[in-house]
Amino acid sequence: MIKQVVGCALLVVLAAPAVAQVKAGADPARFDVADANKDGQVDLAEYGNFVEEWVLLNDADRDGKLSRDELKDAPNPSKFDTIDSNRDGFLVIEELSTYSDGDFAAMDANSDGKIDRAESAQRK
Ligand SMILES: [Ca+2]
Ligand SMILES: [Ca+2]
Ligand SMILES: [Ca+2]
C-alpha cells in the first residue's frame, strides 16, 4: 500500500510537465505522442513514459489506479482482464508496465529495442 502511494506521488511529479502536451483520450497506440524525441522510433523508455502519462490521463479520481469504469472508453476494453494480473479490478502502473514491456517486445519485430512506424502499424 505504502509503495503504491509513493509510486503514485512520484509519477505525478515526474509526469506532470508532460501531461499538458498529451491530448486527453490519447491511447498507447498513438505513435507520434509516444515518440517524445521525434526521431521516428519509440524506444522502451519512451513507451514506458507514455504508458505512465496514459494512466494519469485516464485516472479520473486520481487514486493511482485505473478502474474498469475509468477505462470504459479505452480502445480495447477486453484487455483489462489480461492486464489485471492480480484480478482486483484495478490496473496499477506495475501491471501496465509488465504488460507494456511484453507488448513492446511483441511489436519490436526486428528486436532492435525500438519500434518504428512500420512495426507500430503492424500491431494488431
Ligand atoms: Ca524516439
Ligand atoms: Ca482511478
Ligand atoms: Ca490489479
TrEMBL record:
The keyword Translocase does not apply. Residues 1-20 form the signal peptide. Keywords: Signal. It comes from the Bacteria. InterPro entries: EF-hand-dom_pair, EF_Hand_1_Ca_BS, EF_hand_dom. Pfam families: EF-hand_5. GO terms for molecular function: calcium ion binding. Residues 46-81 form the EF-hand domain. The keyword Ribosomal protein does not apply. Residues 103-124 are annotated as: Disordered. Residues 111-124 have a biased composition (Basic and acidic residues). This is EF-hand domain-containing protein. It comes from Noviluteimonas gilva.
